[in-house]
Amino acid sequence: MLNVKTFTAVLKVFHVATELNDLDRRVTKFLNSDEVTRVISVSDSTTTNVDGGTMGIIRVVTYED
């Protein structure tokens, strides 16, 4: 069965590399769980504030269990 899981992270100035590494670790931990047998797709999208600056990231994983 196909499933979709969404992960989010707030991106703060001067902390982006750390926050992206933390997001990667959370996604990897999920993918290494017994729930996931096959990854179909992974997609990233950023969110912006009213000034147009990037303030967050959304990572969507489609997988089979």
Can you give keywords for this protein?
single chain; 65 residues; alpha+beta; three-stranded antiparallel β-sheet; 1 helix; elongated
Question: What does this 3D model show about the protein?
Answer:
The chain is α+β, with helices and mostly antiparallel strands and 65 residues long. The chain has one domain (2-64). It has one helix and three strands. The longest helix has 16 residues, at 16-31. The protein is elongated and about 40 Å long.
Compact overview of the structure:
This protein has 65 residues and is of the alpha+beta class. The chain has one domain.
Radius of gyration: 13 Å
Strand order of the largest sheet: 1-3-2
Number of domains: 1
Unreliable spans are none
- The fraction of residues in strands falls at over 45%
Strands, count: 3
DSSP helix fraction = 10-25%
Class from secondary-structure proportions: alpha+beta
Give the helices and strands as they follow along the chain. Answer: EHEE
Largest sheet, strands/sense/barrel:
3 strands, antiparallel
Q: Please report the distance between the alpha carbons of the first and last residues.
A: 6 Å
How many helices? The count is 1
Average pLDDT score? 94
Based on CA inertia axes, which overall geometry fits?
Answer: elongated
